[in-house]
Queue: 2 jobs
Job 1
Amino acid sequence: MTMKKRSNNTSNYTSRQGSFNGDDQDRQKARGQGAHPNSNQAHNPDQASDPEPHSDEHHAPDHTEDKYPKTNQDGKPEIDLSSGKYTKVWQGPNHPGVTGNMSLELTLCGDEIVDAKTHVGYLHRGFEKLFERRLYMQVMPTCLRMCVPESDTNEYVFSEAVEELTGIEAPEKARWLRMLVLEMSRLQMLLRVVPGQGGAFGLGIGVQWGMYVRELILDLFEELTGGRIYHMYMLPGGVRGDLPEGFRERTLEAMEEVYRFARRIDDVMFNNSVFKKRAVGTGYIDPSWVDRFGIVGPNARAAGYKRDVRKDHPYLFYDQLEWEVPVLEESDIYTRARIRWMDMQVTADLIRQILDKIPEKGSFKAPTPNALNWRIPKGETYIKAEASRGEYGYYVVSDGSPYPRRITLRGPSYTHAIALLERMLIRSNIADTGALMVSLQTCPPEIER
Amino acid sequence: MQSTIKNLKKRFDISEVKEQRKNLTFISTEEDQVVPLLMHLRDQEGFSHFVLLTAVDWIEEGVFQLTYILNHPEKKTDLGIRAYIGREDATMESAHHLWEQVATYQRELKEMFGIDFPGSPRVDEEFFLEGWDDIPPMRREFDSKQYSEDTYFPRPGSKSHDPREYMKQKLYRDDYEEEK
């Protein structure tokens, strides 16, 4: 009897997801796999077919049938808030458990989420509209604010796009320096995010350590570029300056600190029983969702997909470095944090290799036309790079005038924080919401350009 | 990529093929062939990763250019598909059933460019803009400067410069003096 009831509930739930018109069987299958085998989340009707002999005997009576809201003809959930069964909670836009300024409209049944909607628009700055009135060089200081915590990827993809459309090639040394800055940028981001996953579960100490090591990287940025957060170091044609004297040695010292931090956080966070209890098996992403939702970066790599723009579409001199893309398969919050932890060490390795290989001599900036009269030939391109969150790219269209016709950003969070998060939140516990967002590394500024 | 384009040409109206670089090609097709083409690329050619959907406003020609970019994870190549639709009552067939995130892109295009995608989930819900009562702001005829002058009162003491003139004076002073 119980099994039958649960089975009915599955079909209700499936029809409620009316937005996806793909094959029903495929959907059921995917959702069936959507629960991690080790998951400790309750109320997973897809486990109904699990022939566990004692499952019916010792479990509480099943009330899931009427727990999830029915759907109307359009596939939308019919939630009657006056029934007293559901509670509507807004998490964010300002909330310690939410990454950045975005808001989640959660419908709860007890402490379990039955419906979720992402709301953005709290920091929309209209950058893509502003670009219509900016000369290409004037785009620079604005575009790097498209992603606040990792601005250098913006500088790189925009500079590369302008160079490709104009046929300018940055000198070899500039390209090595760009790689160095991109990796340093990834590292300072990971130093926030890796311990931040523990922070989302209340394990604050790693966050403080991470912030200290991150400050060391920011000091290096300040020394190299003059800025700590926004650097404006790369620009079409090359970079703004050479390495300061003694920079290599100081960077290598900082890398030692990064390795030390990685060992400590392994002990304190990844081997922490409370952290493991919360993170293992929670927030599972089914591998079949990777293409269906456009999942990229560490979130895809934790699901067994070896995807990294640096390997797949090698840019700059990444093909001259020796490294392996970390890939794991468990695809839960713990695994995604682990992948980022591995990424962090790979990045430190890459920085050491890059420092060895940067040419001592040579120009770091190719000559470019007067920025006020720089007309970019008519054309379009899409340039991408691997940010710490995954594929990050600019689509740039030029109409031959000094002003760009269209520049648009493709950021990983556009799908991770909306389509994917809305789906993943359903049937999760409200206490895991913040951790789920951190594990997807959502970044609202890149959604709202 | 050459063989893929050849295959596509047998089945669809493909024009303006441009190899931007080794791993990026742009093609154009007719408005009504976009969704079948996307489905073919996903299911038959292996372009399983949907990268982005965006619009470009060519107001002079009275058209919107829609650009869909797909990625082939095994062949490590990107393909951009362009289609042009009229700016008046701009409507496009929805592709939300092919990839889950497409609905979000379509929702943004409806709000920002006024391009409708009938049947796309939540396409009429507000996305970024709340209580917006002007024309869709990413259309070229929307004047953001005029809008801010009309909407917000000027702050006393603030100055504004023409960026072009100001940069001339500050950054290229010699040229500026010569011009004078």
Job 2
Amino acid sequence: MTGVATDTGAAAGGEGTDLRIEITADEPGAAVLRLAGRLDALQAPELDARFRELVPLGRVRLLVDLSAVGFVDSAGLAVLVRARRTTREHGGDVVLIRPRSPEGQRVFRLTQFDQVFRMLDESPR
Amino acid sequence: MTEVATSLDLGADLLSVRRIGPWLSELLDGLPAAEAGALHGRLELAVHEVCVNIVEHAGVADGDVLGLRGDVTLDAVTVRVTGPGMPIDPALIPEPRPSEPQIRGYGLMIVRRLVDRLECRADGGRAVWMLRVDRDGKGTGR
């Protein structure tokens, strides 16, 4: 499975950016999810659905690239926390690439989940 | 004394909640850019979390509306959110332990950390949330 892109949800009339999810899964047991836009309560279920598809396929080592995500709320955080729990139950983990914007980073900092998740500044080579 | 006041009626649904950011931009337009930027970041997330909480937990019905009013004074920026549901005392809601990886319950904790004062009271059968951020000239990013 390589380069599966999903542009989720209806347009918000120019008020906000929908979440785009691109999944690359070239390595057995692993996948990279590149996200762009808003990871909020409206779009979090779409990301949750992607995780629920990947884990039963044995893809439990997940790298989630949030660098182009400009807004994360508690619902978006909850989906990531649930994925972390599920993948770890299967011997994997969720590693995050930190959002570039302060708005994207804020939820992680306020809840101290920036100290729970392994968070990278950029994608490993 | 209020220097600027604006209001906005939102549909009580998750898509409409996305109008908060642009509305706050208008409300804060007259402030120095650095302060406005910092206040916008804090208030957008805080007001968003309150509105999502109402949409998801207050038993909204078709056609329900969330009323937002923002006031900018020399001392503070205050946003009031009026919506369906019973008022709750934010101080009585237990917080998850920071950094402990439980899945839900972080919304109100995030709001508390973003604002200087948070209240919720009843008004004519609706709940009115009041979020106040004190002005220090910089917006003190959180």
